[in-house]
Amino acid sequence: LLGQADQIERIARRLAEVLRGGGVIYALGNGGSAADAQHMACELVGRFQME
User: pLDDT at residue 46 above 70?
Assistant: First the structure.
């Protein structure tokens, strides 16, 4: 992950920008990927509402 830190930060900043602008983030998947998408969505919503 250290080699991808810049890319991860860029994505995080873009996600925050979308949310601040009233946008919507969709997480989609099929099978195991659907579970990953659901988990990511719950992490974003839980942290966003708490903080």
Answer: yes
Buried b (16+ CB within 10 A) or exposed e, 15-33: eeeeeeeeeeeeeeeeeee
pTM for the complete prediction?
0.67
Sorted by where each begins, the domain ranges of the chain are: 24-51
Per the rule left: phi > 0, alpha: psi between -120 and 50, beta: everything else, 31 is: left
DSSP 4-35: GHHHHHHHHHHHHHHHHTT-------STHHHH
Length of the chain, in residues: 51
Q: What radius of gyration do the chain's Cα atoms show?
A: 12
pLDDT at residue 43 in the model:
85
